[in-house]
Amino acid sequence: MPRPVWSGAVSFGLVTIPIKVLPATESHSIQFNQIHLEDGGRVRYQKVCDLDGQVLTQDEIGKGFEVSKDTIVQITDAELAQMPLPTAKAIEIVAFVPAASIDPIRISDGYYLAADGPVSAKPYTLLRKALERTEKVAVAKFAWHGRERLGLLRVKGDVLLLHAMKWEDEIRSPDELKPEGSELSDDEVTGALALLDTMTVEHLDDLELVDRYREAVLEVIEAKAEHRQPRQTGEPSAPASQVVDLMAALQDSVAKAKAARGETSEDATVHEMPAPQKKAAGGKAPAKKAAAKKSPRKRAS
């Protein structure tokens, strides 16, 4: 595990849980250095003062806020640490909500919360079990890196996981992005549902998900270092042509997905989708009928 990035406490009501915060994810992206093409030398960046042209070390650099064109107010880390915020030293839980009520677009980086010392073991486990049994998540506030943040606490295995979250005003509205000419027939929607059903798996871990771009880049790097040609990893997929017959494309996709799962494709068509129910007077829809049971699907051996 990496070193903690923050330490403090989780508080809800009068319960306080000392914790340490550790990154829950890591990047496997390949990092390139910038080089001078003429001689291969590394390109370095230096921090230079605008007034005297002096190259500065990190110890000589502080924070400043530009209040006007010619005025910058210096702010120290000590001043920020002394702000009277309850979230400056603690992750403060403000509410518990159903997990399904959180829009995933608001969820950002994840951090494991580790109990800090024997005294925190029981309240830490208490909060974890309470979240597990209610299937809820906690919405919290905390202050890191010069700003107050919104967070989401959830259970992962036997530990608590904190996600940073976007504030409501940080999410851009998609209202202007709806495409024109998007009317669909019931048959087209039914075909899409059939394809979706055929491609459904029980869990994300059931899929073989590999970063093939990273693998290809590593092969290029290794080949260059060994003065050889990179091994070919297969022909790139041809870009999909413009869809002319949507229903035909859906039917072909269902058959292809079934073949990939080892299922027969004798019947790539799907049952008819029930017609949309009309709303009765007063705006209420009539009661739904019980859904018909699906026939068992064959699985690949």
Structural overview:
By secondary structure, the protein is of the alpha+beta class. The protein is 20% helix and 24% strand. It contains five helices and nine strands; from the N terminus they run ββββαββαβββααα. The strands form two sheets. A seven-stranded mixed barrel has the order 1-2-6-9-8-7-5. The protein has a two-stranded antiparallel ribbon with strand order 3-4. The chain is extended, with a radius of gyration of 28 Å. The two termini are 39 Å apart.
Mean pLDDT: 81
Q: Per DSSP, what share of the residues sits in E-state strands of 2 or more residues?
A: 15-25%
- State the separation between the terminal residues, measured CA to CA: 39 Å
Task: Give unreliable regions as ranges.
Answer: 267-276, 278-301
Q: Could you describe the largest sheet, including whether it forms a barrel?
A: 7 strands, mixed, barrel
Specify the helix fraction band. Answer: 10-25%
Rg from Cα: 28 Å
SSE run: EEEEHEEHEEEHHH
Number of helices: 5
Strand order of the largest sheet: 1-2-6-9-8-7-5
Q: Given the C-alpha coordinates, what overall shape results?
A: extended
Count the E strands: 9
Structural class: alpha+beta
List keywords for this structure.
301 residues; alpha+beta; 9 strands; extended
How would you sum up this structure in a few lines?
This protein has helices at residues 77-81, 121-134, 186-198, 212-225, 246-260, and strands at 6-12, 15-23, 63-68, 71-75, 90-98, 107-115, 136-144, 147-156, 159-165. It has 301 residues and is an alpha+beta fold.
